[in-house]
Structure formats: structure tokens, C-alpha cells
Specification:
Urease, subunit C, domain 1; alpha/beta; 8-stranded parallel sheet; 23% strand; 15 strands; TIM Barrel; 7-stranded mixed sheet
């Protein structure tokens, strides 16, 4: 963040009515109210309006009230690896180094830094997350943190481990994730998808992130094939070959409106069509992608296809912060053709939709949970307001 901001979370005041005022209220990217008032009752938003309310109200100042931010894809359990890994040797060496360092650091250090990162998220205005954990150590951290969203227990390999129970429970649900099509067997991915789908929960998976992944899925050989063999993972019956990672998942019937596909760096026009047709939710992590792959996702064409990308940061092992304000500013800088309101939606409503939380958050509107952020952006023009927010200019 380039300037200070203030956050107020209204939760727990279940029998209390309050009215909050600011110079602007952004309900969502399409609806903004100048000199607005937000009325809450029983922990929910009752009304958002312009004018002057009756009775006492809390005046936050000339700035803006916005919905809480959503980080739709992160790995808190890797927070202890911040600034410890090199990006300049390629993706596969980075993965090797990550696994070795994670083992060396030990569980205690991983938990300690994950707790700190979870606390920092809330201080930065990110209140909803899609946390993906291979080790499972961040489940209790999320439960105790006050963060909301979805905890995804991640699985990879041939599926010999027992899959944990899933549970749909606002404001924090527990689902499952397949690591990626090149690290998880088809049987495992189908089992995971069936279990999350039966509970009406999102299923998360990394897709088309690296050249190694695409080479392996299409040709069944290469550096990643050698890496899996080295780690004792038998992919002989996976049925890979002559498909892109997206087409491969589609062939297995894993793509639908409850699937959250993450990264999507190496996708074709045909892949875009598959994703759009399947109504898949998608999440992009541009800063991490730039660091690990020197490549950015094709957000413009995703939007043209009617896809609604959410924003994620990935982990502190591949990104210098988990701050969605930082991610928005990066997108605004590197995608100058994108409307600032579109970037804002990626950090709020699109993220809520990706995690199945649009009935709870993503906008400041009637019936949503009474969470909001106040930003001291003193601006007279609506068009400039969004530009300053997504660019961190206040």
C-alpha cells in the first residue's frame, strides 16, 4: 500500500443498528453512490442510500466505503519461504527447492509464519480467501483467524490417501483441491471433484501454469515426466496425450460452474471456448506468474469470452505480498486497456463468485454481510475514484 487506510468490520453486533456515511460508497463496480449512507442491522446490510438519514450516524469522512477484498487463491502454509527461493533457474528447479526448503524449515516454522500472514491479510483489507493447503496445517489457523472463505485441502499423486470430509458452512467452508492435471491421477481428480460437487462446494485446481505441464499432458514425456518418475509417481495409466491441460480436464468431465481453474497461462483459443462453455470459474495470479514463468495470463481475451477472472496472489514463495491491493495495482499497470472498474470487480465480486460466496460478500448491497473497508480517497470524479483505488493512489 502506498498510503494508510482504515478498515471496519461489523460482525458480532447482531442486535445493533448502525448507519455509516462516507463521501462515496461503491456498492459494486456498476453502482456507486456519492455522499452515501450504509445502514446495517443484525450483522447484515439493510440498505444503502444517498441523502440524510434520521438519527445518529457514523461519519467516516470524504473517502470511500468499499466491499472487503477477496484473495481467491493463496497458500498460507508457504509463508515461511518468503524471499528464500530463486526465480531465475526455471519452474522445475523452483519446485524442487520449495519442497526441500519446506521440509527443512519444519512444521513449527511453517505454522508460525502462516499465522502471521493470516493476520496481515485482515489488516490489509482481505477478509475472504481461497486457501489451498497440501499439508493441512492452515485449516485450524483459518478457523481461529476470523478470515472467511474456503479452505481447500490439496491432494496430488495417485490418490492412495484417504480424502477428508468436505463441509459447506458459511462463512468458512472446507473443500478439496486437486493440485494439477500433471501431478494428480485422473481417479484422484474425479474422486475429489465428486466429493466437493456433492456438497455444492467449489473444487480448485492449478491448470496450464507451466510449459512443462503442457508438454507432459500433450506428449507424455519431458522434464516433468522424469520428475514424477523420480518421485515414484506412476502416470502410465493416466490417459494423457494429444490434449492441452484444459482439454484433458474437460475430457474427464471435471469442468463446470463449481470448478475453480487457477493460473491458465498456456491456453489456446479452443481452451478459452471450453472454459466459457463449461462456465468454469477462473482465478489469475499475475505477479506470481511473472516471477515464476516470465509470462502473464491473457486477461483481455478471457473477458471477451465472458469469463470473469478473480484475483489471487499464490504464495509468499512466489510473490512479495499477499495483498490484493498490490495485485490490483500490478494488473492496472500491466493491463492498461482494462477498465479500472473491471479490475475492481476482479478483486471483489469475481472473487466472491469464484468461491461461491456471492450471497455473502463481493458487493455492498442488501442482505450481504456487513463487512466493509474505508479508504481515505478524497476524489470528486467517479471515473477517477476507481482509477485511484486500483492503482493505490491515495
Amino acid at each position: 500500500m502506498t498510503g494508510p487506510f482504515f478498515k471496519k468490520i461489523i460482525s458480532g453486533a447482531w442486535d445493533k443498528r448502525e448507519v455509516h456515511r462516507a463521501g462515496w460508497i461503491i456498492m459494486d463496480s456498476a453502482k456507486t453512490i456519492q455522499n452515501g449512507y450504509l445502514e446495517i442491522e443484525n450483522g447484515l446490510i439493510k440498505e444503502v442510500f444517498a441523502g440524510t438519514p434520521k438519527g445518529i450516524f457514523i461519519d467516516h469522512g470524504p473517502g470511500v466505503l468499499i466491499p472487503p477484498l477477496v484473495n481467491a487463491h493463496l497458500h498460507l502454509e508457504l509463508s515461511a519461504l518468503k524471499n528464500r527461493l530463486s526465480f531465475d533457474k526455471g519452474f522445475q528447479p523452483w519446485v524442487r527447492s520449495l519442497l526441500e526448503l519446506r521440509q527443512t524449515l519444519g512444521t513449527e516454522a511453517l505454522i508460525r509464519e502462516a499465522k502471521k500472514a493470516a493476520s496481515d491479510l485482515q489488516a490489509l483489507g482481505t477478509l475472504y480467501v481461497g486457501e489451498v493447503s497440501t499439508l493441512g496445517i492452515t485449516k485450524q489457523i483459518l478457523e481461529n483467524s476470523g478470515l472467511s472463505g474456503v479452505f481447500f485441502k490439496e491432494y496430488l499423486g495417485s490418490g492412495n490417501d484417504e480424502i477428508g470430509n468436505v463441509r459447506k458452512n458459511a462463512p468458512l467452508s472446507f473443500s478439496v483441491a486437486g493440485h494439477a492435471p500433471h501431478t494428480s491421477s485422473p481417479k484422484l481428480l474425479k474422486d475429489l471433484k465428486n466429493q466437493s460437487g456433492s456438497a455444492g462446494l467449489p473444487f480448485s485446481i492449478h491448470v496450464a501454469e507451466s510449459e512443462e505441464e503442457s508438454e507432459f499432458i500433450f506428449y507424455g514425456k519431458g522434464a516433468w515426466a522424469d520428475f514424477l518418475t523420480e518421485r515414484g509417481i506412476d502416470y502410465g495409466r493416466w490417459g494423457i496425450g494429444s490434449k492441452t491441460p484444459v482439454a484433458y480436464l474437460d475430457h474427464m468431465g471435471l469442468l463446470d460452474s463449481l470448478t475453480l481453474a487457477v493460473h491458465l497461462l498456456h491456453i489456446t483459443k479452443e481452451d478459452m471456448d471450453i472454459l466459457a462453455r463449461s462456465q468454469v470459474k477462473i482465478c489469475v495470479c499475475p505477479r506470481s506468474n511473472r516471477n515464476l514463468h516470465s509470462r502473464l495470463p491473457d486477461i483481455e481475451n478471457m473477458l471477451k469470452k465472458g469469463l470473469r477472472p478473480a484475483l489471487g496472489t499464490d504464495s509468499l514463495a512466489s510473490c512479495d505480498s499477499l495483498d490484493i491491493f498490490d495485485e490490483m495495482a500490478f494488473v492496472a499497470k500491466h493491463y492498461p486497456k482494462l477498465d479500472p472498474q473491471t479490475v475492481f470487480s476482479m478483486a471483489t465480486l469475481n472473487g466472491a463468485e469464484a468461491l461461491g460466496l456471492e450471497h455473502i460478500t463481493g458487493a455492498l448491497s442488501k442482505g450481504k454481510k456487513a463487512d466493509f473497508i474505508y479508504l481515505p480517497v478524497d476524489e470528486k470524479k467517479k471515473t477517477k475514484l476507481f482509477e485511484r483505488i486500483v492503482s493505490n493512489e491515495y
